[in-house]
Amino acid sequence: DTGVSQDPRHKITKRGQNVTFRCDPISEHNRLYWYRQTLGQGPEFLTYFQNEAQLEKSRLLSDRFSAERPKGSFSTLEIQRTEQGDSAMYLCASRFLAGNEQFFGPGTRLTVL
Amino acid sequence: AQRVTQPEKLLSVFKGAPVELKCNYSYSGSPELFWYVQYSRQRLQLLLRHISRESIKGFTADLNKGETSFHLKKPFAQEEDSAMYYCALSGGNEKLTFGTGTRLTIIP
User: Fold this and answer.
1) What rounded mean pLDDT belongs to chain A?
2) Which residue of A has its CA nearest to B43?
3) Contact at 8 Å (CB) between A42 and A83?
């Protein structure tokens, strides 16, 4: 287990297209988080899961965004009808319930043309 | 509401000189504070957290509730300290609130 992995690492799409990102957390980490980071800013919280349950969503997560973690392991983040403002780095993190350190993945860089 | 402020976007320090990266926070309860670091071409990783009161790679940070600060310090900078540093706060819920980051450059 080499840590949190994300796929793809880079995605270029045209405005209006749908995109989906995948995150594989560290094994046995039951909490999984999604963040978005734009240029010059720190990561901003989007949503998190405990096992398969999505427990909190930020107001940043518009209705074009949906996240799932169907079996409590990997998670997907889908953006429908992408806009240029969606261009950002999308980060995934996971942690074990008993710990308080979030382990981050390498991120998926989305560019919307 | 949770808020973290890092007033310096860029900080350059000579090798061997002391380093201080500033972080101020706003939170009405008892926060947990963290420093995360991102080295070139690497992922974001935890550097230290206030509850453990540890020194990592020579860095320390003390939580000052009176001044609502959590400044990161190191007495003697090394070239390998060049990186992006983020202060983050957890307010008892699950999310981390990050500052905008400080890019630290150590001048040889």
Assistant:
1) 94
2) A106
3) no
